[in-house]
Amino acid sequence: MTSLATGFARTQRWLRAYPPALDGALAAAVLICMVVGSFADPNGPHGPEFGSRTPELRSVVLMVLAAGALVFRRRNPLAVLVLTGVVSVAELVTGDPPAPVAMSAVIALYTVASRTDRPTTWRVGLLTMAVLTGAAVFFGSAPWYSQENLGIFAWTGMAAAAGDAVRSRRAFVDAIRERAERAERTREEEARRRVAEERLRIARDLHDVVAHHIALVNVQAGVAAHVMDKRPDQAKEALAHVREASRSALNELRATVGLLRQSGDPEAPTEPAPGLEVLDELVITFRQAGLPVEVARADEGIRLPAAVDLAAYRIIQEALTNAQKHAGHDAKAEVSVIRVGPTLEVTVLDNGAQPTGQTAGGGHGLLGMRERVTALGGTLTTGPRYGGGFRVQAILPLKTRTGEDR
Prior knowledge:
single chain; alpha+beta
C-alpha cells in the first residue's frame, strides 16, 4: 500500500513538472469517457441501457476533435473553449441522442475560469451554459426537463464555480508566499542593521578605551623620559602611572572583546560597564597625567539608565582625552553633570588653545560622541569657546528610546 502511494505521488509530481504531458493524459481520459458514454442509451425501453447503441462516425470524429483541442487548453483557453463549444453544439443539434461531447466543453470552461478573472468567468460561464443548454433543449428529442438537459446546465455551472474557486485559492497561496518572502527579507535586513549597529557600538567603545588610556600612557611616558636623569623618583611615579593606565586599558579591552565570544568560548569577564559612579577615578587619572580637572555635580540620588550612564561616562572620558592631547600644558578642564528636568546635561570645558583636530565635526572621537548621543535621542553641541578653549555639551534624556526609565 505504501509503495502504491509513493508511486502515485511520484507520478503526480512528474505530471505537474511537465504540463503538456498532463494535458495529453487528461485529453486521453476525456476521450475515453466520451466514447464509453456514447454507448449508453438514456432513453431505453426499461430505462438507461449500456451497449444498446453505437456512436456514429460523425460523433466519433467530433469527440476526437474536441478531446484533441484540450491538449492546448493552457496555451489559449478561450480558443479551446470556443472550439469545444462549437463541436458540442454540433453534436447536440445532429445527434439523437447526442454523444457526451459537451464533457470537453466543461473541461475547457473550468480552464478558462481558473486562469482568468472573475468578471470574465461570469460572462463566459453564463454564455456557455446558455448556448449548450439551449441547443440541448431546442434541438433534442427529450423534453426540456430531462436529466440530460439539466445535467448540461449543472455541469457547466459547476465547472465555472470550481475554476473560480481554484483561481482564488491559487491567488491566496501566492499572496501568502509573497508575504512570507517579504517578511523573510525584512528580517534579514533588520538583522544586518542590528549587526551594523552593534559593530559601530563596539568600535566606539574600543576607540574610547584605547584613545583615553594610550593618551595617558603617552603623556606619562613623556614625563618619565624628561625627568629620568634629574628626578628619578618622579620618573618612577610616572612609569607607575603608565603601568596603571596600561592595566586599565587591557582590562577594558578584555571586557569589550569578551562580548564578542561565542556561547561555547570561555566565560567573559562580568565586570559592570563603567558609569558616573567611577567618575572620580577617571578624573584622578587625568590629574595624575598633569591635567587639572574640576568637577561639579548635581545629580545625586538619580539612578540613570545603563545606556545613559555609559554614554555620559564615555563623553566625559573622550572630551578630557581630547583636552589632554590638544589643549596644551597649562590648560585646565571643568566637568559638570546636572539634571535639568527630564534630561541629564553633561558639559566639559577647557581653556586651552583651539586645536586643529578638535573642530566641531572633526575626528573620530567627536563623531563617536555624536553617534552615542543621537542613538539615545539626545543632542550634542561641540565647538570653540569665546575667548579660547573648547566646549562639549551633551543633553541626554533620562528615558531612553527603548523605554528604560529611572
